[in-house]
Amino acid sequence: MPRRVPAQTQRRQPGLQHRMTPAPVVIGEGYRGSGKLAGKVALISGGDSGIGRSVAVHFAREGADVAFLYLDEHEDAAETVRLIEAEGQRALGLSGDVGDAKTCRRAVKDTVKKLGRLDVLVNNAAEQHPQDSLLDITPEQLERTFRTNVFGMFYLTQAALPHLEAGASIINTTSVTAYRGSDTLLDYSSTKGAQVSFTRSLSANLASKGVRVNAVAPGPIWTPLIPSTFDAERVAEHGANVPLERPGQPAEVAPAYVYLASADSSYVSGQVLHVNGGEVVNG
Question: Looking at the annotation, which residues are catalytic?
Fold first, then answer.
């Protein structure tokens, strides 16, 4: 895996995967599916690119049909559909704002109507806007970040819950910043801490129903969120400060979601898997 990425930046968020150099690795050449998710249906927010796309393709290789919700990155979404279908599975791309409750209800309704059921929910969509000072975070930015990262997670889970039966799995994408913080991502880190608490609380709430709730806390992964968040100089140093001294690829994170979605993790709930390049965090 490359230890550095070229300096680059994008002027819009969400970022666009088809404009990244090099392109993120979606699935490793040696990854072989073994039917771990055969017959299941998954819904992934932010599934058009980055970690979400990689999870979608890994799920498809394991036998799942996959629906995904994305904002307006239509070219990236079309490629994700192509990759899922190339694995021999059904794909459904759904455009809309995850921070809107009606959009989330529609996404779940369309998933169940067109794919027949819902077994795995991945709350992955997120945005971040760095600021040097707490005083620079406007009410508009604060609400926008929480609406996407936290409200969207609540709305989509609420919509999905009536369709999840015993054996179903909910997986939330939190972050290493929930554990060590970030001096320039104050609001984003706060949302990621909220996602950890949500994961632990909902896992207890749903235990008697046989629905497991877990999370993954990625470190510096090479996704469109990076060039769309930081300046070119910061992007070129992405991942340099972790023990493995490089950014991770989405393909190196997605197998953690396969584990949490499958029966392999049948005795795991309320937990967070740390895929972060060797950074040791507590909790």
Answer: 188
